[in-house]
Description:
By secondary structure, the protein is of the alpha/beta class.
Amino acid sequence: MKIGIVGPCAAGKTTLEGNLRRLGYDAHAIGQEHSQAQMMWRQLTDPDILIYLDAALPTVCARLNVNWEQNYIDEQARRLTDARAHADFTLATDDLSGAEVAARVVAFLESIRVFPSPADSKS
């Protein structure tokens, strides 16, 4: 099953994609937060399962070493409205490591009986 991952900048999309791929999941980070196309996540990936990762402004600023204002994050959230509404699982990553995010997402996937494909795993 194809897994799409969306969320604002620095929420952990790329890290989660890498962790899930190493485990054998067909995961795809979708960098939609900069696009005005509300359904870009569908057009780019058309995933079977959509994961929405979230992070608050202080977390984003610390992870990226930037000084953004809340309106910048609010605009990203607006652009992600459709994706968030269609997400099968949403997770705030502020206080979680990449490994913890992956563990929680894998637990969710297992709970809905989605397991990795050994043929797709990458070391």
